[in-house]
C-alpha cells in the first residue's frame, strides 16, 4: 500500500510539473504573439518585457506572492497576511500516513505550477500597453502586481478566502488569471493613453498593422498548446481512473472551445468587414480558450465548442467597441482576457449545478474592483515618479532604440 501511495504521489507530481512546463511555454507564445502584432521598431522592447516580466514574476512570487496566495493561516477571509519564501517540502512519512488530508503531490511542484500562472497574468498587461510605455516603469509595475495585487485576489478563490467560501467557481482562472491581468491592463491603458496617430480628431480609427503575422500565428498555436497544461493541470491529479478521465475531458473541451472561437470570430469578421481577418481569427482562438478556462470539465464537447464560439464573437465586437471608445490595445488583450473572461465565468452555471450567477457576479466584481483600484494607484504613482510614457520623438523612432539601444530587424535600418 505504501508503494502504491508513493507511486501515485510521484505520478501526480510529475504530471503537475509537466503541466507547469506547458504553461511556462505560454510565455513564448505571448512573446511571439505580441512581437508579431506590434510594429517592427518596437519588437526588441516587447521581447525584453516578456522575458523580464517572467523572471520578475518568479522571484516576487517566491519571495512573498505564493505565501500570500496560499497562507498557512490567513488573517481573515479577505487579507491573507504576509510571509516569505517557501516552507520545506512534504516528508515521506506525511505522504504515506494514510491520513485523509495527506499530500498527494510535491509542494515544490505546486509552487512551480502556480508561478507560471502569475507570469501569464502579467503577460496580458504587456501587449495592451505596447509601443508607448517606458520599459522600467512597466517592470516596476510587474514587481508590485506579481508580489501583491495578483496573490491577494488569488487567495480569495484558490487560497480559501471569501470567494471560495461563497462558492464562486473558477476552475483554472478565467477570473483569477485572465480578468485580473486584463483589468490591470485596462488601468494602464487609461493612464497611458493611445498611441500617437491611432485615432483621428473626428473619431476615426486608424489601423496600425503588426509587423509579422506569421510570428503572431505561431504565438497563437504555442498558446493553444500551452493551454492544455493550463486547464488540464488544474485538475491537480491524474493517478486514478476518475481523474484521468477528467483530464482527458478537459483536454478535449479546451481544444473544442478554441476551435469554436476561431470559426465564430472568422465568420463574424467576414460579415462585419467583408474580409477574412487573420488577427480576429487568432484572437478568436484565444477567446475560446479563455472562455472555457472557468469550467473546462462539466460541459460536453458540443457545449464547449459553443462556449468558445460565443467568446470568439464577443472578442470581435469588443475590439471594435474599445476602439470606438478610444481605448488603444494593440493586441486585443483587454477584450480577449477581460471581456471574454467575464463571459467564461458567467457561462459556468450553464453546465455546473454548483455555480450560480449571483455568486459569479460577486466574484467578477471583487476581482475587477481590487485589481483596478490597486493598479490605478500604482500606475499613477509610477507616472508621477518616473513617467510611464516615452516621449513623442522616441515613440516615432521606436522604443527599441530609446529603451533597449538595438533593433530586432537591423537590416531595415538606413545606413
Characterise this structure.
This protein is mainly α and 415 residues long. 70% of the residues lie in helices and 0% in strands. It contains 15 helices and no strands.
Helix content range: 55-70%
Count of extended strands:
0
Instruction: Please state roughly what percent of the residues sit in beta strands, choosing from under 5%, 5-15%, 15-25%, 25-35%, 35-45% or over 45%.
Output: under 5%
- Large-scale geometry: globular
Secondary structure elements and their pairing?
Blueprint: H1 2-37, H2 43-69, H3 92-95, H4 107-128, H5 135-157, H6 162-166, H7 174-192, H8 213-232, H9 241-273, H10 278-293, H11 301-324, H12 333-351, H13 357-385, H14 392-397, H15 399-404
Give a quick set of tags describing it.
single chain, 415 residues, mainly alpha
Brief summary of the model shown:
By secondary structure, this protein is mostly helical. It has helices spanning 2-37, 43-69, 92-95, 107-128, 135-157, 162-166, 174-192, 213-232, 241-273, 278-293, 301-324, 333-351, 357-385, 392-397, 399-404.
